[in-house]
């Protein structure tokens, strides 16, 4: 899995998609043209900033698993075990006064119907019924 360190000292693990902050571009280990996933892990030292690019049309969120961050344009900080849903796309400005570890997760919406029953999630009721039959007849395979 590709790793890099920005000029500002932020360590970036590029799990999926591409990291792009305007100065560095790095492809991740996972590439899927159908959903264009973006999965980045930032290790931000105290006083650091990072400006990752979120692709146009993607839904995105930030999850802070250690420390806290500030997002430019947002009135409040995002603390440990909190998530922020991002609106829009483009350059994102994230800073951390005391240091943080953050996941940026984004992807292109599928815009497909979703049918859920118990642990099964499919696109149609017929697919759910087939999954239930397969489960009852012990035909589900990994």
UniProtKB/TrEMBL annotation:
It comes from the Bacteria. Residues 39-139 form the Pirin C-terminal domain. CDD domains: cupin_pirin_C. It holds the Pfam family Pirin_C. SUPFAM superfamilies: RmlC-like cupins (SSF51182). PANTHER family: PIRIN (PTHR13903:SF8), PIRIN-RELATED (PTHR13903). This is Pirin C-terminal domain-containing protein. It comes from Pseudomonas syringae pv. maculicola.
């Amino acid at each position: 899995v590709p790793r890099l360190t920005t000029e500002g000292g932020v360590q970036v693990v590029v799990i999926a998609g591409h990291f792009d902050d305007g100065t560095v571009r790095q492809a991740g280990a996972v590439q899927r043209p159908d959903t264009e996933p973006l999965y980045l892990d930032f290790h931000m030292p105290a006083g650091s900033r990072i400006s990752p690019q979120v692709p146009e049309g993607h839904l995105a969120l930030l999850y802070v698993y250690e420390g806290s961050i500030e997002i430019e344009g947002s009135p409040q900080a995002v603390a440990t075990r909190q998530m922020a849903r991002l609106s829009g796309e483009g350059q994102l400005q994230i800073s951390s006064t005391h240091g943080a570890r953050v996941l940026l997760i984004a992807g292109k919406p599928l815009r497909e119907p979703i049918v859920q029953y118990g642990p099964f999630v499919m696109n149609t009721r017929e697919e759910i019924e087939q999954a239930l039959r397969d489960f009852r007849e012990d035909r589900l395979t990994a």
